[in-house]
């Protein structure tokens, strides 16, 4: 085997490992985003439900604060919808990053196995 | 092709694909981070709208809570629009969107002309049109045009696969 080919093989593997490292970093970032968006989704949903319950089953006469209830519910609805969007997008990014990592892992494993076999025969 | 070549080609292709794909994921992730800021602007706008609605004492045609909710909704909209770099940003987005559509159409035409073995002059004029469209996105006419070695983008693109004469001709025309 030529030296240049050996060098190129090393280059290919180094490139693949570099991309794998990048994918790992992306995965960490996206994992945090999934976590934060899930928390935001749960909290906004809980507050939205609490407000809805208070609005529907409240027997107190309409005062100053009750006037703001529909507006506050609107705001919470807006936050809830944004949380859903954020969670959906981050989940998609997370699953695609996991698939990317699996794919490059499989390719690197194949390559290492092949190189191992070749070195064993030599 | 031997098994070694196949595995090597597969590794190279996966590396190449994932490098660009990861860049796309990073961009989308950054856009996702901006979504929370947009929500914050929306909430702030909504709160301001509600407070303004609370200042209005009585309206004949609607209950006060409805007015507060409506002004809150308007505030959310204004806040989100404000976050998207003001109304000028919206116009820029629309401009970029329409420019992208037209440039895609032009690219299809260039591909069709190349496949149909159209005369070189036709392809060159299409490329010139494509370049003019790309440069039209720049706001200020004083801003410098990106040129590498005195040749602008479309000429470089042609030069990568076509004849070197095309570079020189288009470079001079532009």
Topology, pairings included?
The complex is a heterodimer of chains A (122) and B (174).
Chain A: H1 3-57, H2 69-121
Helix pairs in contact in A: 1-2
Chain B: H1 3-55, H2 64-83, H3 86-115, H4 120-135, E1 147-148, E2 151-152, H5 153-161, H6 164-173
Antiparallel strand pairs in B: 1-2
Helix pairs in contact in B: 1-2, 3-4, 4-5, 5-6
Shape of chain B: elongated
Percent helix of chain B, as a range, is: over 70%
Oligomer status: heterodimer
Principal-axes shape call of chain A: rod-shaped
What about the largest sheet of chain A?
none
Distance between the termini of chain A: 10 Å
Written overview of the protein:
The complex is a heterodimer of chains A (122) and B (174). Chain A is mainly alpha-helical and 122 residues long. Chain A is built from 2 helices and no strands. The model of chain A has no long low-confidence stretch (mean pLDDT 84). Chain B is built from 6 helices and 2 strands; from the N terminus they run ααααββαα. In chain B, a hairpin with a 2-residue loop joins strand 1 (147-148) and strand 2 (151-152). With 174 residues, chain B is mainly α. The two termini of chain B are 46 Å apart. Residues 140-174 of chain B have low confidence and may be disordered. Chain B has a two-stranded antiparallel sheet.
Short description:
The complex is a heterodimer of chains A (122) and B (174). Chain A has helices at 3-57, 69-121.
Give the key terms:
heterodimer, A: 122 residues, mainly alpha, 2 helices, rod-shaped, B: 174 residues, 6 helices, 2 strands, 2% strand, elongated, disordered C terminus
């Amino acid at each position: 085997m030529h030296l240049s080919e050996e060098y190129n093989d090393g280059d290919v593997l180094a490139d693949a490992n570099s991309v794998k490292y990048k994918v790992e970093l992306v995965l960490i970032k996206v994992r945090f985003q999934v976590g934060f968006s899930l928390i935001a989704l749960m909290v906004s949903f809980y507050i939205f439900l609490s407000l809805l319950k208070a609005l529907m089953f409240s027997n107190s006469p309409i005062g100053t604060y009750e006037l703001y209830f529909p507006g506050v519910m609107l705001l919470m609805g807006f936050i809830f919808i944004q949380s859903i969007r954020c969670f959906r997008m981050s989940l998609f990014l997370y699953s695609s990053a996991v698939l990317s990592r699996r794919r490059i892992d499989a390719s690197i494993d194949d390559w290492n196995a092949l190189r191992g076999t070749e070195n064993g025969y030599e | 092709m031997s098994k070694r070549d196949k595995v090597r080609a597969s590794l190279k292709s996966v590396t190449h694909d994932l490098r660009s794909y990861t860049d796309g994921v990073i961009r989308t992730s950054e856009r996702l981070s901006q979504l929370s800021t947009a929500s914050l602007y929306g909430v702030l706008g909504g709160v301001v709208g509600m407070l303004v609605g609370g200042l209005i004492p009585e309206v004949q045609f609607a209950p006060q809570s409805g007015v507060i909710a409506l002004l809150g909704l308007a505030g959310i909209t204004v806040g989100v629009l404000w976050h998207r770099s003001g109304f000028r940003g919206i116009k820029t987005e629309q401009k970029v969107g329409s420019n992208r559509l037209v440039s895609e159409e032009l690219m299809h035409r260039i591909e069709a002309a190349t496949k149909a073995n159209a005369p070189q002059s036709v392809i060159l004029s299409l490329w010139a049109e494509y370049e003019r469209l790309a440069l039209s996105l720049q706001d200020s006419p004083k801003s410098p045009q990106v040129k590498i070695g005195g040749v602008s983008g479309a000429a470089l693109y042609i030069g990568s696969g076509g004849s070197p004469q095309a570079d020189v001709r288009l470079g001079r025309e532009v």
